[in-house]
Amino acid sequence: MDSTRQQKVARLIQKDMAELLRSRSRQFGKGVIISVTVVRITPDMGMAKIYLSVFPSAQCQDVIDRIEKATVSLRYDLGKLVGKQLRIIPELRFYIDDSLDYSERIDDLLK
Fold this sequence. Notes:
Blueprint: H1 4-23, H2 25-28, E1 33-41, E2 47-55, H3 60-69, H4 71-82, E3 91-96, H5 99-110
Parallel strand pairs: 2-3
Antiparallel strand pairs: 1-2
Helix pairs in contact: 1-4
């Protein structure tokens, strides 16, 4: 169960990380849409797990690899955005959120 503080920090990071990824989208792939679906933060606010949805999903692993290579600069830019609100800028971990693909697969099976 996440505390209220964890939920607020997660929403703040989700909003700002989505903006960062949107502004740097050409760096991660041409014609790719990246959205931040969920952010989960540890109780000590030291690490944030960021779940990304990538369209088209065929390029998903390539995009995640590029984002992981740019993690240091993304964390730096995030720190500039939220530095006045957070004392510690959390370490960032990126994961693929494939829940949309999973639900689409279930819909196809039910037809």
